[in-house]
Design brief:
The structure is a single chain. The chain is mainly β. It has strands at 2-7, 10-15, 24-33, 45-47, 50-52, 56-62, 68-73, 78-89, 94-101, 108-116, 127-131, 138-148. The strands form four sheets. The protein has a four-stranded antiparallel β-sheet, with no helix packed on it.
Length: 163
Amino acid sequence: MRVCMLVAGASVLVALGAQAAPAQITVTGLHIRVPAHKGGGVPWDLGHGTAAAPDIYACIEPEGQAPACFGPCPDSYACVLELPTSMVLPAEGTVRFRVMDADIAEHDRIFSADRRAADLADPAARRIDRRDPADGRRFSLHIQTVESPPPAPPAGTLDGAGR
């Protein structure tokens, strides 16, 4: 049951015995940092006979949906990907973020991380910093988001169910 109150001229929705709909999370960009080499000191790429930085790209994979991939940032250890179109995540389920190195033959997985979509409202959950326990290499992914309120119920109802 929900009750609508008027407080200082603003409408406030109060949930009594029910949970309010979660806010929508929209991913707008990704900031990525990767170490200078793969495990064991192996370079990401070979360019003109020397070690070269990876060609970073990232994929966002909401549970039950096709992945959307963005990039690449060629020959870079740090990459800022501003998404050409914002990606609205489902309110429920898990989202996998994969960071990859684009290669001619087989792409290298740099790292991946799973987050519950609802947790991405928390700024701490949008910052993923990892350290490889074997050799101390550091990886980071910072997810830029915009949070918007849940869709409003239809006009003439308090909660869209005629109550």
